[in-house]
Amino acid sequence: MFTADVLIQLTIDGVSRGAMYGLMGAGLALIFGILGIINMAHGELFMLGAYAMYFATMVLGVPAPIALLISTALMFCVGVAMERGLIAPLRARLGSRWLVDGYVLTIGIMVVLQNLALILFGPREFGIAAFWPGRQEFGDVVISNERVLILAGALFTTGALALFLKKTNLGRAIRATAEHPAAAQVLGINIERIYAITFGIGAALAGAIGSLLLSTYPAYPTVGGEVLLKAFVVVIIGGLGSVWGAMLAGPLLGLIEAYATAFAPGGWQNTITSLLVLAVLVLRPQGLFSRQVTRP
Amino acid sequence: MLLKVRELKVGYASGADVLRGVDLSVGASSVTGLIGANGAGKSTLLKTICGFLRRRSGAIAFDAADIGKLQPSQLATHGIAYLMEGHSVFPGLTVEENLVLGTWAFRKERARAKQAVERAFELSSVLRAKRKVKAGLLSGGQQRILEMERLTLNDPRLVILDEPSLGLSPKLVHEVFDRIAQMKADGAGVLVVDQSARHVCAASDHLYVLRLGEICIEGPAASFSDRIDELVRNFI
């Protein structure tokens, strides 16, 4: 039977993995909230981050924490370049009719990046066993160091993102642009810059998570697909466009997955997730955690 | 003149001009009123001055410099404040966050930005009481007060107001027009469009009536005060 220590392990497992889904979803929600497009290439940003982490640590021998920073910074630049080079010109040319085109564009970026990775690195999986081998024992509860690392990384990144959005001028400007772009402009906020920075932040989050999860998800060309699906689930549960909702829905999804794996026969894990998504879409389409602010 | 609009033509669809050659001026330390029927082109004129629409032809000069190619995000650094049609608070941000964003144009001058926000709280007890409340939870009137305070945080030289009294209670309408008088006393030029022709006429130094994309009447507001009803009947 399942004892307390197993439950604790499952919980830690679920929360740490789920917090990562939450951050992927938060990036997706941030980009959707600001630019209005669903970034279908979000999984590929995760994939690029994973490759960057692998090559930095295993090929160049850079220590993991520094490699993580490099990979995150690199993906921020990739995100900004993608927005400036591909998405912004499309928006400028099409005006208000660009949203569908923007969506299709990100599907194109997804396909191109997948195939580029296939050509450059081949179909092989580049993974590692663990950045921090070994384990911690707390009485009967045994937790691998890697889990501790992932949980710490997820909590740190979630906290940093929340603080950034809440407490900094730039973070406030990003939220303001999401709510009322014209009013933000009138106050002097250059929303073109906000678009680029937001896409960069979303890409940096995806890259950082791809790097941190290298031991769980090795780098290969289509690794992004699975992760993107999780991110979508998180975004639907949390409420489309709600960054906070996604950050809360992530751990919830992680817990459901962890418990389902342990308590239900194989295959039920994805079924339960899908049922939850259906239930949310039918019963509470605004998402479980979105506190809609309505005008009186 | 602070703002000078000359022969301005603007249209949405090709061929059909909404503004068909508008001339209008706004001086410093004065209030200029603009009234007209729905669809006359009042909002279009304001949007064009503020860079949300592009002119077909004509000139828009602010402080004798051409601002026809101005981006909306450059308004604040030029010292132009614009109250757009409808609601413009950020509903999910707190009252304080809304005000802090009003100092965006000079956010690097931290002390000044902080002081401007604190002064707004000192001036308005309503906002002070709702400091940490999300702006979307305020009543329509409270939101308007927040918008008006946010508008003047960086001491604009030109304030452009699109329907500031729309949907407000009579008491709040007075408050809004008192605030406009205060802006004028502080040296700003104010251009105000409003449904309430009587209030606009009373608050203005100079009045324009826009009809079908053209200025049909203009003059010192005082000269209209006794025949404002006739004006409203004939043109609005």
Based on the model shown, name its key terms:
heterodimer, A: 296 residues, mainly alpha, ABC transporter involved in vitamin B12 uptake, BtuC, two-stranded antiparallel sheet, globular, B: 236 residues, alpha/beta, Rossmann fold, 26% strand, branched-chain amino acid transmembrane transporter activity (chain B), Branched-chain amino acid transport system ATP-binding protein (chain B), transport (chain B), ATP hydrolysis activity (chain B)
Q: What do these coordinates show?
A:
Chain A contains eleven helices and two strands, in the order ααααββααααααα. With 296 residues, chain A is an all-alpha fold. Chain A has a single domain, classed as ABC transporter involved in vitamin B12 uptake, BtuC, CATH 1.10.3470. A two-stranded antiparallel ribbon of chain A has the order 1-2. In chain A, a hairpin with a 2-residue loop joins strand 1 and strand 2. The model of chain A has no long low-confidence stretch (mean pLDDT 91). Chain B has 236 residues and is an alpha/beta fold. Chain B has a domain of 163 residues: Rossmann fold. In chain B, strands 6-7-8-3-9-10 form a six-stranded mixed beta sheet, with helices on both faces. Chain B has a four-stranded antiparallel beta sheet with strand order 2-1-4-5, covered by helices on one side. Chain B is globular, with a radius of gyration of 18 Å. The two termini of chain B are 28 Å apart.
The proportion of residues forming helix of chain A, as a percent range, comes to: over 70%
Helix and strand content put the structural class of chain B at: alpha/beta
| Shape label of chain B | globular
What CATH calls the topology of the domain at 3-86 and 157-235 in chain B is Rossmann fold
Indicate the percent of residues in helices of chain B: 25-40%
Fraction of residues in β-strands of chain A: under 5%
Mean pLDDT of chain A: 91
Give average pLDDT of chain B, whole number.
93
CATH architecture of the domain at 3-86 and 157-235 in chain B: 3-Layer(aba) Sandwich
Number of strands of chain B: 10
Low-confidence parts of chain A: none
| Major β-sheet profile of chain A | 2 strands, antiparallel
- What is the CATH architecture assignment of chain A? Orthogonal Bundle
